[in-house]
């Protein structure tokens, strides 16, 4: 029922585009990034060579293999947990296997039948499962009309504060990483952050290429105040928020408003219809939620996080580990 694809990066990405991938996580660019952290990508296809998902595998200890699909299944059919985990176990030659699937496709586009095919909802999720979708197939006037009063006011302030905004034709990994390092100095380092690593960012820039659209906002002296980037997915129909950082100086000059607004308009110009703002958590991160919600974007729910193990008794002890290594 399943096979490991021998397709090149370019061939795989073309196949993923055709099935309408929603997030960057099933593209080769994400796999190449995670290879730097010790993950091995497994591109799974069905018997007709249609892409099913991209799995990242890592051996923990001597016997346990963790298999993680950060973008979820690309197919409409229900993937049986037992069949899929047995296939992965045989492929990786593992007797102990934990598999987690993160269905990031919004439920209004594709509903996940996983809970009917042997998968179980994870005990501890890695995200809220909620996001906001900004429609870009409307006029500029219509998008302005959706902005909240505060968002519109702060955008106007930003446009008057000597913010120079531009699309980075050749995004600089050094500039992006440096901007994130400054943010970490203010907020503290996140255990899994890759954006402050120049080699990691360089891999993303090189692998995603023209799919990655980055907007740079700087002050009169040329220093970055804000950066925001999105990866165009689904053959050009959608985009997923991927990079976002604002320096302390940028906060004072409302640069994040100008940057997001410019990026959304640039994506619209390129024909993107749906822009996923990359997840929100209105409780744990209310400030970011309020900022994204002020754009007038529509709330959406993802398919959710599921897991399965071989043997089944392994699930209790291993599921808590995954959020720390993935």
Order of helices and strands: EHHEEEHEEEHHEHHEEEHHEHEH
**The CATH top-level class label of the largest domain:** Alpha Beta
* Helix-and-strand structural type: alpha+beta
If you average the pLDDT, what whole number results? 91
Please give the CATH architecture of the largest domain: 3-Layer(aba) Sandwich
Q: Give a count of the beta strands, DSSP E runs of length 2 or more.
A: 13
> Residue share in helices?
25-40%
Give Rg in angstroms: 20 Å
Structure report:
Helix 2 runs antiparallel to helix 7 and helix 5 crosses helix 9. Strand 2 (40-46) and strand 3 form a beta hairpin. The two termini are 27 Å apart. With 326 residues, this protein is of the alpha+beta class. It has 11 helices and 13 strands. The chain has 2 domains: 2-130 and 302-325, 3-Layer(aba) Sandwich (Aminopeptidase), CATH 3.40.630.30; 137-272, 3-Layer(aba) Sandwich (Aminopeptidase). Strands 1, 2, 3, 4, 5, 6, 7, 8, 9, 10, 11, 12 and 13 form a 13-stranded mixed sheet that branches. The chain has helices at 9-18, 28-35, 81-92, 140-146, 149-159, 173-187, 198-208, 248-252, 255-269, 286-293, 315-325; strands spanning 2-4, 40-46, 51-60, 64-69, 96-106, 120-121, 130-135, 164-167, 212-218, 224-233, 238-246, 274-276, 298-310. The model has no long low-confidence stretch (mean pLDDT 91). 35% of the residues lie in helices and 28% in strands.
């Amino acid at each position: 029922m399943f096979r490991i694809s021998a397709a090149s990066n370019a061939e795989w990405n073309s196949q993923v585009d055709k099935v309408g991938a929603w997030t960057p996580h099933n593209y080769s660019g994400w796999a190449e990034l995670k290879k730097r952290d010790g993950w091995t990508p497994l591109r799974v296809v069905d018997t007709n060579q249609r892409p099913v998902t991209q799995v990242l595998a890592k051996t923990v200890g001597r016997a346990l293999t963790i298999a993680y699909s950060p973008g979820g299944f690309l197919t409409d059919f229900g993937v049986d947990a037992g069949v899929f985990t047995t296939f992965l176990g045989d492929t990786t030659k593992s007797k102990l296997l934990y598999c987690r699937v993160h269905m990031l496709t919004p439920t209004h586009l594709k509903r996940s039948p996983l809970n009917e095919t042997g998968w179980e909802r994870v005990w501890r999720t890695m995200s809220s499962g909620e996001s906001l979708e900004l429609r870009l197939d409307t006029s500029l006037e219509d998008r302005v009309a959706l902005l909240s009063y505060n968002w519109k006011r702060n955008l106007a302030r930003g446009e008057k504060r000597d913010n120079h905004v531009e699309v980075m034709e050749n995004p600089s990994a050094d500039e992006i990483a440096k901007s994130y390092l400054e943010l970490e100095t203010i907020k503290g380092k996140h255990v899994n952050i890759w954006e402050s690593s120049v080699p990691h960012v360089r891999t993303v820039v090189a692998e995603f290429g023209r799919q990655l659209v980055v907007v740079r906002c700087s002050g009169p002296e040329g220093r970055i105040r804000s950066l925001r980037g999105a990866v165009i997915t689904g053959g050009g129909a959608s985009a997923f928020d991927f990079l976002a950082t604002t320096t302390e100086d940028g906060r004072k000059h409302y640069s994040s408003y100008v940057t997001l607004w410019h990026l959304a308009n640039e994506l619209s110009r390129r024909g993107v219809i749906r822009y996923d703002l990359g997840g929100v958590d209105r409780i744990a991160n209310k400030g970011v939620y309020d900022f994204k919600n002020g754009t007038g974007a529509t709330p959406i729910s993802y398919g959710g996080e599921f897991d399965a193990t071989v043997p089944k008794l392994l699930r209790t002890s291993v599921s808590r580990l995954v959020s720390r290594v993935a």
